[in-house]
Protein 1
Amino acid sequence: MDEQCYALLIDADNVSAKYIKPILTELSKYGVITYKRIYGDWTNTQHSSWKDELLTNSIMPIQQFSYTQGKNATDSAMIIDAMDILYTNDVDGFCIVSSDSDFTRLVTRIRESAKMVIGMGENKTPEPFRKACDKFTILENLLSEQEPGSTKAEEPHDSLSKEKIEDAIIKMIIENQDDNKVTGLGEVGSRLVSLYPDFDVRSYGYNMLSKFLEEFSRIQLIKHGNLVSVALKEDWGMKEDIDRYVVYLVKKAGRNGIELSTLGNKVYEEYADFKISDYGYAQFNQYVKSIDRIEVEQEGTVLKAKYKKGF
């Protein structure tokens, strides 16, 4: 399989030279870098730290004078070059390195042409630019990975709380269970990036997704040889207690059974921590149906749980 080719475009106005080696190392994981360009006003002394890196790493500097005070000419030059490269159709994707949200529309336009876009920027990068990319990587994470003890990303973005990530993974597992499919570790990783382009386990102090997932209380990793799948961590002791309680309530209700809504209220009152999603079910009636001695019947608009005959 041929390697993917990428165009690397760097906004020198918004990115420090200290990140260049981590940037090149990270992008090399995706494919070959065929274009390496950096944009800025090189007469400006604030870009002096970049000059040694340009020759060392074979990066082409693009000079862009600041014609008007307050206007960012660098952005315009990057956008024009990106579109020219896009029209040549000789790359498979782009890496846009900037902490500036002004490139959000450019990223969207490139993706409309079925090209992958990897974004890289500091932790301060606005959310619109992050979300526009196929994959967004925080530069502080790359630097801390290569240079232990250096400044790390301040903290993961609010939208990427661990609880939200765990909920998303549980939803994936339940969806696959409905289709009788196993949820692979690789699938979890790719789907998390699709949902949250700025998701990166390095933001949480891990180098491997598997190690990060071991932290969660509601999911578990299952290994079959070289294959690793992700499944719900079921507290079977608690489930057996709940099953017995449901059977008790339904049997106590007699021949007419008990309305499912009433049954559910009683179960949640007795077991405050009970979550049907922990056992692979999206609805309470599905959970009740899984209990051997119970059946669910519809009477008019009401669902009732009844004790099966013969038990």
Protein 2
Amino acid sequence: MLAPPMAEVPTAMMSQQWRRMTFLHWRYPVEAVRPLLPAGLTPDTDDDRVWVGMLPFLMDEVRPPWLPSLPWLSTFPETNLRTYVRGPDGGSGIYFFSLDAARLPAVAVARAGLNLPYRWSRMSLRMNGDLTEYRGSRFAEPRGAGYRLRVRSGEPFPEHELGQIDHFLTTQYRLYTVVAGRLISVDVWHPPWSLHRAEVLDLEQDLTAAAGLPQPHGGPLVHSSPGVGTRIGLPRVIR
């Protein structure tokens, strides 16, 4: 289930920094997730359950590798809702139910280029020492799906306390999407995360409901990280 370390993407179409990351994960029945996946993808199960993650963070230095980052346009809050899947090629990766972002140009480019389910949202990310508050509410949707999260980050996990599931939920090197009816994969390289303990102080969200998922039961499994640098590879058609 754990993806092996990946060599750096040789030809990247985008370079990004993911900062002040929080990982929230809930376990779902397979039958709740499978109908929401496109043909060709199957849930990557853990003890007959599927993990669904909500990940708010600060997107920074977003740019093609051959261009400098731009003020305002290259830095903005983002939150994605995702699950873990197996492709018909036998690979493992991520499928996004939604990606909320605070920059309309970034939303438009990602939707047009890779058909990723980006939503333009009113968002904020406020930091005060070890406390981070994330807020978001979608534009142009009748119910304005959104969230509010306050989380306190703690000390780094000692490596011996991290298990396979901690690495699996935070270390994925491929995303899947559907473009013009064809299943596409995109490799994403990043170095290992520095994973920290974290505590949720307040959470309200309806992103899961907007995606067609039941309300999660119980509190989430939580990790935080200062962040990593990433390189996004070129899309490939899976035949």
Protein 3
Amino acid sequence: MKSDHTVPAHIGLFGAAGAAGRSIAAALRAQGVRYRAIGRSRPALEAAFGDDPNADIVTWNPDDPSSVAAAAAGLHTAVYLVGVPYDQFATHPPLMRNTLAGLDAAGVERLILIGTVYPYGRPQQQPVTEAHPREPHTFKGRMRREQEDLVLDAHGRNGLSTLVLRLPDFYGPGVERSFLHGVFEGAARGGRAQMIGPIDIPHEFIFMPDLGPVVAALVHTPAAYGRVLHLAGAGTITPREVATRAYALAGRAPKLMVAGKTMLRAIGLINPIMRELVEMHYLLTDPVVLDDSALQALIGPISTTPYDEGIRLSYEAAEAAEAARRALKLQVSPGAEPIKG
């Protein structure tokens, strides 16, 4: 741990260094709540949370239940945010088994899994409620469903209460794993943005900073556990409209290079990660739009950032990152020495 504070942390963020972990940490920080930031890499954790006096930093090995137990010692609630590379989705269930074993050994009382829409498969209704069948037709969806089953089956076992909070696709300032991130980068650089199409079908996105306050509320909502709940975005928007608005902020017309499913297959011949996107392409042609009325009935109205504001904040973050990149480039290579006659 980073320091020996007299007030212990009772909330642990497992896989904390990503965008979701940073969002939850920000909400806990705003409430003055201590938390434990847990991840594989201490440098990444220090970079994200090293300046936060409310954060205790702990490293773990999710492949080892004893390491999970050590990281979870003294916690009341664990929030599971662990992501894996797109070509390693088979590791989701065993990692969750290890985590559950470690949490059990540590006596943790509550577990929140931040989940995805993958287990639903193609939507059979819109919007999708928690009663929608989980019938994934993709390997990734089956792995996520198996992970969820482990969490839900653990509810009520050895004093553990569990919850799956399902999110749609996400975006936000500096959120690099969003497939909209390239749009903000392209607008800020004045270059071409690479997108995955089709881009004219309405899609739902959650602005990642909106997640934190919801999780902070669910930590103290016992009635939320033992089930799946949805957190929706601010309605729907087409990816093309996101690009149009982002480039407008830069005073530019959109420059887009759109890859459809056929192009993804071709690129996938040399890029294994792009190959893994092919089976999930249905989410662009048949997007899942979530109904979160059950969540709002539990914790009250949810503050959702409108797309105009979220796009502006995301663009401004990309613009700042681009300015920093250019400044660093000038420092590293200030230019060639003038030719002397």
Protein 4
Amino acid sequence: MRRNTFWLITALFVMVFSSQAMAGPALSVLGQDYTFPNKIEGTPDKLSDFKGLEINSFKTSDGAKLTYWEAGSGKPLIFIPGWSANGAEYINVMYLLREHYHVYVLDPRNQGLSENVDYGMRISRYAKDVKELADHLGIKSANYCGWSMGASVMWSYIDLFGTQGIQKVVFIDEPPSILTRPGWTDQERLNAGAMVDTPEQLMRAFTSGEPNPVLERFMAMDSPYFENSESFARFFIKSDMKYMSLIMFDHASNDWRDVIGKKVNVPTAIFTGEYSPNLPSQLWMKSAISNSTLYVYSKQEQGDHFLAFKNPVKFTKDLQEFLER
């Protein structure tokens, strides 16, 4: 009986400890400090320099445990990363914004520190995850920023839930439709940003290592800010391509032009750059959303798909200017 009691207490201790391990100061959750490869004025030299950075989690209505990163105080600002991305990559963005906003970055299911699951592999479920994050936090209204696939998640969010809880919304360099539809003219394809004829082509492009413009800009590693955030993410995040790739088919199959043209009715910022193959579609989005501002970063300003991480000082300055306008 005593042995059973001992094991019961031990099991309860492990359960409590495990539940706490993914909630609290980032340094405690990650288990060790980290020194960034480049010392850059205005950004932390070590993880421990980022006071107030926390990593917490919640459970969705369908049972997936999702992690979110948070820092700062003030109005809530929620970031939705792109495919395969995570909160660790936002380390500089969060640090630069922490004095002005209460910043949150969600690790989508199967990404970052969130749980790997084989269900809910639909952009609509990812959108509900965002809604449930806001509900979990008790946030009734916030600014939202979706990058890459994260922008698609926000288009689905607006399609499902409207814009009542959105003050302003930001989209970073995501085409309205990745997949070319039969019968499209060349202009329709440019407006949509379509880049492949089948979802399988997109999956091969991002999982087989074949050259493509987005991966080429990623591999360039031509920014010390980007090198810092990527090295930090690689050190702590162990991604499983088997799980991450499950969402790609649904992601590639959506056409969001009707949502963009008819349902985005709050002040909107669109970020893209001269290096990005998505530039034509971002110009179309600017014309389709009446109350929108377009930011086109030059090549000298690191204007590619990763502009927010390669040039976080300019990005956060432009973002804050837009949000406070």
